[in-house]
Amino acid sequence: MKAAIFIPCLTEHMYPGSGLSMVKVLRHAGVEVEYVDDQTCCGQPAFNAGYRREIIPIAERLIKLFAGKEYVIAPSGSCTAMVRVFYRELDISGALKDDLDDLCGRIFEFCEFMVDVAKVDSLGGTFPHKVTYHDSCHLSRELGVVAQPRKLINDIAEIDFVEMKDSDACCGFGGMFSAKFGELSTEIVARKCANIVDSGAEYVIGADAGCLMNIGGYLRKNKMTPKTMHIADLLATSLDL
């Protein structure tokens, strides 16, 4: 089984270790990993800001770059949803529409790929800590990926997994939303972090760098005990990769 990895902007610039963790876990699971050179942003920030016509060249370039790959995997529900769901709203060149349809059937978020495609059972890791999980909006709402991260977490030996209150509530990041509506975003993330603290978890696990950056920033600023961790980092750490 071969997979090309798609590394989103926040992963590349803010959380590169999570991308490396994803590669290590995929290889541990027997997946042959390929990095596609010259990949860039999927265009989501501009799309969300209303520049839907302007990002068409970016989308078409990404479609061409990943054409013909057996699978494409990203450590982000947000960017996976951008390609699989929202690229269909763009006026993509007719010559590339078949390629887009094909890509939409082969691009997966990391947890989704591990459980639904690679059919991974227990990886054999150990993590003797109490954790909770934050459902990021695009991953859960646009892709319907809810059970898969929880399966990967619960398969880790010695882990103590607890559900927080309103685990599927937005963390307030929303890309441009947090920049344009800062005060509202802060109120939303404050509620999310209070639920994390109330769960008693040492770590809050997530599958999107944007959410983890937003939640982690609030936790640190307010000297709250829990730490954030991408699920790829959790799996790699549990396996001592």
Give your account of this protein's structure.
- With 241 residues, this protein is α/β, with parallel strands linked by helices.
- It folds into two domains: 2-117, 3-Layer(aba) Sandwich (Rossmann fold); 130-239, Rossmann fold, CATH 3.40.50.
- 48% of the residues lie in helices and 12% in strands.
- It contains 13 helices and eight strands.
- The strands form two sheets. The protein has a four-stranded parallel sheet, with helices on both faces. It has a four-stranded parallel sheet with strand order 6-5-7-8, with helices on both faces.
- Helix 12 (209-221) links the parallel strand 7 and strand 8.
- Helix 2 packs across helix 13, helix 7 crosses helix 9 and helix 11 (182-199) crosses helix 12 (209-221).
- The longest helix is centred in the last third of the chain and has 18 residues, at 182-199.
- It is globular.
Keywords:
241 residues; alpha/beta; Rossmann fold; 2 domains; four-stranded parallel beta sheet; 13 helices; 48% helix; globular
Question: What's the structural blueprint in terms of helices and strands?
Answer:
Elements: E1 2-5, H1 9-13, H2 16-28, E2 32-35, H3 44-48, H4 56-65, E3 72-74, H5 77-84, H6 97-104, E4 107-109, H7 110-117, E5 130-133, H8 137-142, H9 147-154, E6 160-161, H10 176-180, H11 182-199, E7 203-206, H12 209-221, E8 227-230, H13 231-239
Parallel strand pairs: 1-2, 1-3, 3-4, 5-6, 5-7, 7-8
Write a compact overview of the structure shown.
By secondary structure, the chain is α/β, with parallel strands linked by helices.
